[in-house]
Amino acid sequence: MSQANPEAFNLALCEFLARAVTPFHAVEAMASILAEAGFKPLSEAENWQLQPGGKYYLTRNGSALIAFVHGANAGPELGMRMVGAHTDSPCLMVKPQPEKVRQGYFQLGVEVYGGVLLNPWFDRDLSLAGRVSYADKSGAMQTALVNFQRPIAYIPSLAIHLDREVNQQRSVNPQTDILPVLTQLPAGDSIDFRHLLAEQLAAEHPAIEVDRVLDYELAFYDTQVASLVGLNGEFIASARLDNLLSCFTGLQALLAADGSQSSLLVCNDHEEVGSQSAAGAQGPFLRSVLRRLAGGNDTVYAGLTDRSMMISADNAHGIHPNFADKHDDNHGPKLNAGPVIKINANQRYATNSETAGLYRLLAAAEEVPVQAFVVRTDMACGSTIGPITAGGTGIRTLDIGVPTFGMHSIRELAGSRDAWDLNRVLRRFYDHSGQLFPG
């Protein structure tokens, strides 16, 4: 359920981050929270019978989710208040034939997913989680999630004695340098990784009968849980803050909304690798749902998109006290100084003056401070699902984010106040009645 104060909010956020170790686990956790709050599951393959005031959710690929409220006072055709985020984070994923034995150590070959900051992955207690496809005893294919939970792997650094220049210059070869060590093996022994997965499936899901593992999508993750840090608990440190913090914040805002307006939360997968997938923002998931909410009528759909707005929530770069020169002098967001409007003249962010102006009005009503981020003109700018959603649907879009340190590291840092403040503004946005924009 929705959290009523910042302390409870951050506690629930930490619990969510501990559960959401992969996009599949994130969607499973969000679906569980929505069902507990009275949202009804829908299937894309079935006919929908939606009721005014009804609350619904659906998933795609097990890694993307849309939840929406059919407004009690305003149907979807009068415009949707939408929030978007993404479930994936940069990580190390296991290759299809990963087994390696070197110097008597059993290791797994990994592939880098997204723009990983690799150096922080060394010397961490790692576990493994994801989705496994398997054949049951009848020969039918099934899928299930696995999470080893305990530390089972480690990527040891090379000692400074063997690399004296490491503090002056260090590069990481992703093919050779980051293979996790899982165990030691006697000479001549080997481990079948798929057999190991079958044993883990049986341990986690005693009711299923696994004949053999067919394939998998598995990622390593840091077992250190999220925590509040700082002399006064000013910060929250965790893996996957980018962008599960936004998924959780949007979810809590939707749960706290009064349900009078038609509102929607979309959490896409694959943002970190370009969003071009069935579950990504470049895929048809959101457009398909919006068209169904418009009853398949092109004119109604055009009116729905024209009257709607999307807030794309994705973490922003906070100004680092040790590297302040990496920011524009006037656009260095600080942690715990409010969510950040993200602006780029070249449309790497989808913010325009209308969407930014509306957000500033909503934030002022909640007495939430607002910051702005523009990348240095001599540096390249990242992007989000915001421009993709705006370009694919024509919906006015704002890019917003909580300021963060260490983005794409195995462990990131955000202010313990900012997510709560963003949640308050998003809730007001969901409840905002009447026309969103003039004209």
UniProtKB/TrEMBL annotation:
According to its UniProt record, the EC number is 3.4.11.-
Q: Which domain of life is it from?
A: Bacteria
Name the keywords, alphabetized.
Aminopeptidase, Hydrolase, Metal-binding, Metalloprotease, Protease, Zinc
**Would you tell me the Gene Ontology cellular component terms?**
cytoplasm
- Kindly give the SUPFAM superfamilies that the UniProt entry links to this protein: Aminopeptidase/glucanase lid domain (SSF101821), Zn-dependent exopeptidases (SSF53187)
- Supply one GO BP term: proteolysis
Short name of one Pfam family: Peptidase_M18
Under the heading PANTHER family, the entry gives: ASPARTYL AMINOPEPTIDASE (PTHR28570:SF3)
Q: Which family does it belong to?
A: Belongs to the peptidase M18 family.
Q: What is this protein called in UniProt?
A: M18 family aminopeptidase
Protein's organism = Parahaliea maris
